[in-house]
Amino acid sequence: MREGASARSHHTSAPGPPPGGGGRRPPHRRRVPAGLKGWLYLLPALAVYGGFAIYPALSTLYFSFLDWDGVQLPSWVGLENYTRVVSDPLLAGAIGNGLVLIVFFSFVPIAVGLLMTGLMSARGHRGMTFYRTVFFLPQVLPLVAVGTTWRWLYSGSGAVNEFLAAVGLGWLARSWLGDYDFALIALGLIGTWCMSGLCMVLFMSGAQKIDPALHEAAALDGAGPLRRFLSVTLPGLRKEVGIAGVITTIAALASFDLVFVTTNGGPAGQTNVPALLVYRLAFNEGDIGAASALAVVLTLLVIALVSLIRLLSREK
Amino acid sequence: MRVGAPVSALRYGTLSLIAVLVLFPFLGIVLAALHPTNSQVGGLSLPDQWSWENFRLAWVDGNFAQLTRSSLIIAGWVVPLTVCFATLAGYALSILGVWGGRVLSLGFVLGLTLPVELLVIALYFNLREVGLANTYPGVVLAEVALFLPFGVYWMQSHFAGVPRELVEAARVDGARDSAVLARVLLPVSWPAITTLAVLVFMWSWNQFLLILVMMQSPDMRTAPTGLGLFAGQYGTNIPLLSAASLIVIAPIVVVYLLFQRSFVNGITRGAVKG
What single string gives the DSSP state of each residue in A133-163? Predict the structure, then answer.
C-alpha cells in the first residue's frame, strides 16, 4: 500500500495546471485542460464500475432497511433486519461459522507456510519451480470442482476413511461432511488444502528477499536455526504474512461455492455460512431485507478484519 | 552454511510429501472418471476396464459442451473489456492525472474488499428492471465491474513504475496522449497486461455465485455453475461427476501451466503492492 500510495501521489501532483514554461507543451494540449482530458480515459471504467458495482452495493444497503419479498411493495423497517442478523441464532450462527473457518483458511495455512519456509531456509533450492507450480495449483481451480472432489474423498467409503483404516485409525471413520460434530472442521480442512500452497509460495519467495547478511550476522552472534528463524526470517516476512492473512480471511468469510456443493449448510445447519444464507434468504425464501442486511454485515466484517490485518502487518 | 545430505533429503522429502497431498485428489478423480459410469468407486482404485464414456456422457448428455461454450463466450468478452478499461483508467490515474484522481483511486481500491455477496442481490433486481437479467451482456458487465478494481489498481501501479523520462520524451516530441499510450507505454506493458488477462480469465472462468443468481437459462450458465448443479443431480454417479469435474478444470489448468509465472506473480505481487 505504501509503495502504491507514494507512487500515486508523485504522479497526481505532476500534471494539474501546466508548470510555468508553456513552451515545452505541444499546442494541442492547451485546448482541453489536462485534468479533464484524463476523465475521457477513465469514463468506460467508471461507468461500468459505478453502474454494476457501486450502484448495486448501495442498492443492497438500501434493501437492508426494507421488508420486501421481491414482488410486492416494500415497506421501510429501519434497523429491524440488522437486529435479526445479530439476534437470530441462525444468522448469527452463520457468522460464527464464518469466523471459525478463518482458523482453517487462514491460521493453519499461514502456520504451515511459515513452518515450511523455516524448514527450507532462505536460500533457493533446485526444482523449486516444480514444487511452486504444484503448491499453487489449488489456488487457480474452480472451488466447485474442488468441492465435488472432496465430497467424494470425505464420503463414507471414500479415500479419507480408507487412509484412516490403512493406518489403524479405522474406528475414526465416518461420513465426514454429514457428521454433526465434524462437518465444519472437515469443510475447513478443504480450505486448508487450498490455501496452504499459496502461503508457502508467498513466504518462500519473501524469505529469499531477506538480506543474507542478516542471517550471517545472527549466526556469528551464536544464534541457532530456530533463533535465526524467529528473529530474522519471521520479522522479514511481516508483509507477506499480512497479504496471506488478507487473501485467506476474505476467502473464509465470503466462501460460498465450496459450501454450496459440499454440505449446503448441513447437517442441521452446522455449516451454514453467511454467503449461503444470503443466497437462500434472497432467492429461495424471498426475504430480501434480511439477506441484504446479512450481506452488509458480512462486508463490514471483511473490511474491519482486512483493515486490522493491514494495520498489524504494517512495517515500522 | 553447508547442509548435509540427510537434511537435504528431509527437505525434499517434506516438499514431495506436500506435493503428493496436493495432487492426490486429482489422481483420485482421474482414476474415478475412467471407471464405468454408475459404478461404485470408493477410494483410489484402478478400474477393471478403462472407460472413456463418462467424458462423452458429461459432454453430450450433461450439456457440458454447451456450458463450456457459454463460459468461453463470457470470458471472451470479460477479459478484453476489463483489460482495455483498466489500461485506459490506469493510464489516466497514473500518467495523465485527473481532477479528483486520488479519491477515484481510493474508490477503486475499496472495491477490492467488496464481496460479491453484497452485489448479487441488487444486481439481480436492478438488471431485471432494465432487461439485462439472464443475458450475456448483463453478466459480462457485472463481471467486468467486479474485476475492475484489481485491474485498475494493477495497471495504475504498473504505469507508475514506468520511467517518467519515456513519457516526457514522447511529449516533447509532440505526441498526443493517445499516442503516448499506444506507442510508448503499451510496448513496455505487455507482461503486465498478460498477467492481468490470465488472472481475469481465471476469475471469470471460476465465477459461480454471480452466474447462479443471474443466469436462469440452463444453457447460458457456465461450466463451473453447471457442475455445481450437476453435482446435486448426479451426486452418486462418481465416475460421471469426476469426468465433469475434469472437463471444468482442464481449461484453467492448461492456461495455468502455460502462464504459470503470470499467475503466481499476479496474485502474490498484486497483493504485495496492495
Answer: HHHHHHHHS-HHHHHHHHHHHTSTTSHHHHH
What cell numbers appear for B170 in the block? 514522447
Q: Does A167 touch chain B (CB under 8 A)?
A: no
Q: Are B199 and B266 in contact (CB under 8 A)?
A: yes
Contacts of B1 in chain A (CB under 8 A): 121, 215, 219
ipTM: 0.90
- Bridge partner residues of A67 (DSSP): A75
Interface contact flag, B42 A162, Cβ < 8 Å:
yes
Chain A residues with CB-CB distance to B157 below 8 A: 3-4, 7
- Among B23, B152, B267, whose Cβ lies nearest the Cβ of A139? B267
pLDDT per residue as tens, chain A (316 positions) = 333 333 333 333 334 333 333 344 444 445 566 667 888 899 999 999 999 999 999 999 999 999 998 888 898 998 999 999 999 999 999 999 999 999 999 999 999 999 888 887 655 567 778 888 899 899 899 999 999 999 999 988 888 888 898 898 888 888 899 999 999 999 999 999 999 989 998 898 888 888 888 888 888 888 888 888 888 888 889 988 998 999 999 999 999 999 999 999 889 889 999 999 999 999 999 999 999 999 999 999 999 999 999 899 887 6
Q: Is the peptide bond before B191 cis (omega within 30 degrees of 0)?
A: no
Q: Residues A214, A258: contact at Cβ < 8 Å?
A: no
Out of A57, A148, A240, whose CB is closest to B241? A148
- Tell me the DSSP string of A218-249: HHHTT--HHHHIIIIIHHHTHHHHHHHHHHHH
